[in-house]
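User: Could you go from structure to sequence for me? I need the amino acid at each position, not a summary. Structure tokens:
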């Protein structure tokens, strides 16, 4: 895949920020509005993903989707924890929170200027929402570097993206997404799990060819 220009990078970053919100917290009215945004849906559908059709149009449907978020990602009972160390095949503490890969992603994020804070931060840096937000930050930074004509900086940022995708997201997210597809009763979360897995697969192919 050819190197993307600044507008393409910014579009991708917007998609990953949206995905980060989907997995980080239960569906709010504000997030539902963002997901129905015509420009965003058009971008996704042009890429071959018919997501958004499962969004509820009524208050009770929204409440049910919030309950499904809890059942799928939080529990009590069987659920799919959205944390890297739980699923990462190379983590010696796999299956637990705060594994070795958690510390690695925290160092990496700090080095790239991402401060984990605010009400959306639950204290554990390898939550899928946080890692997708970090990837979006790197795409934004590459877009700015390319817009400024700083090729060396842009390539360093691509290297950082490659590390994040091949060493972290690409290693554990496929297993996580498959588990979500099996666990959830919601076409909404099943669809976004499939979308996330496919997009990160595309990123792996794109960055492998650098």
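Assistant: Here is the amino acid at each position, in order:
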């Amino acid at each position: 895949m050819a190197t993307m220009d600044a507008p393409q990078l910014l579009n991708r970053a917007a998609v990953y920020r949206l995905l980060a919100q989907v997995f980080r917290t239960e569906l709010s009215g504000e997030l539902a509005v963002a997901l129905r945004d015509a420009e965003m849906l058009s971008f996704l559908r042009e890429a071959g993903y018919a997501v958004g059709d499962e969004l509820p149009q009524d208050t009770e449907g929204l409440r049910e989707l919030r309950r499904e978020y809890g059942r799928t990602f939080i529990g009590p009972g069987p659920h799919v924890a959205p944390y890297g160390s739980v699923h990462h095949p190379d983590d010696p503490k796999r299956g637990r929170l705060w594994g070795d890969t958690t510390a690695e992603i925290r160092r990496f994020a700090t080095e790239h200027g991402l401060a984990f804070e605010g009400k959306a931060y639950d204290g554990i840096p390898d939550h899928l929402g946080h890692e997708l937000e970090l990837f979006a930050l790197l795409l934004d930074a590459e877009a700015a570097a390319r817009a400024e004509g700083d090729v060396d900086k842009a390539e360093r940022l691509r290297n950082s993206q490659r590390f994040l995708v091949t060493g972290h997201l690409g290693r554990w997210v496929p297993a996580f997404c498959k588990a979500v597809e099996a666990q959830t009763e919601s076409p909404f979360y099943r669809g976004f799990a499939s979308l996330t897995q496919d997009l990160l697969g595309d990123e792996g192919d794109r960055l492998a060819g650098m």
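One structural detail worth keeping in mind: The mean pLDDT is 87.
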